[in-house]
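stuck on this fold:
=====
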Amino acid sequence: MSLEKYWMLFIKSNVWIAILLCALMLIGCKSFDYLTKIENTFPVAETCGDCHIDIYKEWSKSAHARAFLSPDFTTITQDGSLADCVACHTPEPQLTPTAPLPRTILLKDGVTCVTCHLTNGKMLGPIQPTGAIHPHPIEVAQNRFTEAAFCGRCHQSTYQQWQETSVKPRQTCQQCHMPTVVRKVTQSKGGISKLIVSMEKQITLRKHTFMIYPQSEDLKTFELHTDVEGNNITVVLINHLPHSFPTGNFGVQIGVMLVQFIDADNNEMQTSRYEFVQELKTNLPSGQSKEWILELPQSAAKMKIQLLRHGHSKQKQVELLNREIPLP
């Protein structure tokens, strides 16, 4: 029988002894008061990662973690000196009805854990805790973390597009960019923490990856149609995202569609490139379509269509669609 099962049987048969033991374990552990008491500082993300191991790993690879340190941000904002930008790239842990206030400490953490999860001296989250021990004060506010408005304080233009979309069902930011996962809120590093974590339940949570492009097969993102008539082929692209393609507040957002004609020997014959640029108002709004009529090259056996979102200078481009279409 596993250590966790022994522990649960012990709890059921010796409730008061278990409570006493838990109290003794907490006395032997370091205090977590500093996590919620803000004076001149508050915990860095790495400290939160001591217990919330999986969440920290996901966040540390996300754009939120690089919000203040990315080369593009430092270049465009003159090393973070533009106040209008800093507010959303290093937000204070205080909920405001509009854009957040900029903080003046721990800037390197960017959009960090306490930005969203600290309020009134308590760690704030969307779910009721399932563990028997709470190492720090906790407050639950489910609606705050499930509403798109929570993300819209910083992602303002995207949020406005989301509000105006006619696409149904209208997925929220969290549904697309924070995929679900079943796990415990905390993970163990061994020792006493293993016993504490063993008392938690596995529940449905959301990953803190904040991925640019949703990877769920249940989400319909783009629809592509082609129609051959004579020597021409019509290509129609429909945007089913609940916001424009591309979208975003920071820097120049560029989407690219590549159309390649390929012969029977798999040789590329001709490539056409079409750009979608938000700043030039050539982006594709939510729920709308664009159409291109192309001349078919002789001997073309198939057509390959790729839809890409170009990242900033240090980011890889993201492939959103890749389709090969045989030609008559």
